[in-house]
Amino acid sequence: MNKEFNLENIIDGLARDNEKSLRELFNYYYPRLYNFSKSFIKIEDSIDDILQDVFIKIWQNRKHITRTDTFNAYIFTITKNLLLNELRRCLNHKHLKDELYELSTAHEYSFLETTTYADLELLVNEVVDELPDRQKQIFIMSRSKGMSNKEIAKKLNISTKTVEYHITLSIKYLKQKMSVLGFGYLLFFYLFL
């Protein structure tokens, strides 16, 4: 950390609603988070919006931030989660899915050419429909709508652990079913779910 940056003073300032502390925090962390984000998603257009959301979350939670030793992990975790949400949102756009699918599929696996992405997606959706109602609901909220576990827990009035439990069971089931269907479906699972 540079000499002028004192995280303890900044966290104290945030707790006292000092906007100057937020600016100092922004000036210190923005370049680091930007480079981290750029290496993570390669979609530079969205990074500024995502980082703006990171600092909004910091400001909204400023009264609960007390530890300097874990702050670095805290701010990078917020950033990573927002990046994952953005990535999921982008993947929900079909043309990006198709483009990513094209880029991620080696030519030696061109057996998939006979199966279109839409066919894979349709079959995967059928497997998702086989999940018990609650698991399906939580899985769709997580993977299709890009909601965080915490957001899902709040919306359904259940604990975050319960959300994690349902997602774990869903992924286990989907992975098992897709591995039986073949390599192409398993590849789809790892790329898009």
Short description:
With 193 residues, the chain is mostly helical.
Provide key terms for this protein:
193 residues, mainly alpha, Rna Polymerase Sigma Factor, Chain: A, Arc Repressor Mutant, subunit A, 2 domains, RNA_pol_sigma70_r2, sigma factor
Give the assembly state of these chains: single chain
CATH architecture of the largest domain: Orthogonal Bundle
The CATH topology assignment of the largest domain is: Rna Polymerase Sigma Factor, Chain: A
SSE ordering: HHHHHHHHHH
Structural class based on helices, strands and sheet pairing: mainly alpha
CATH superfamily of the largest domain: RNA polymerase sigma factor, region 2, helix turn helix motif
**What's the CATH class label of the largest domain?**
Mainly Alpha
Number of strands: 0
The share of residues in helices is over 70%
For the termini, the CA-CA separation is 38 Å
pLDDT averaged residue by residue:
80
| Overall shape | globular
User: Main sheet, how many strands, which sense, barrel?
Assistant: none
Total DSSP helices: 10
Total discrete domains: 2
Low-pLDDT segments, ≥5 res:
none
What proportion of the residues form beta strands (DSSP E)? under 5%
Overview of the molecule:
Residues 125-172 form the RNA polymerase sigma factor 70 region 4 type domain. Keywords: DNA-binding, Sigma factor, Transcription, Transcription regulation. GO terms for molecular function: DNA binding; sigma factor activity. The protein folds into 2 domains: 1-114, RNA polymerase sigma factor, region 2, helix turn helix motif (Rna Polymerase Sigma Factor, Chain: A, Orthogonal Bundle); 116-192, Orthogonal Bundle (Arc Repressor Mutant, subunit A), CATH 1.10.10.10. The mean pLDDT is 80. The two termini are 38 Å apart. It is globular and about 60 Å long. It has 193 residues and is mostly helical. It has 10 helices and no strands.
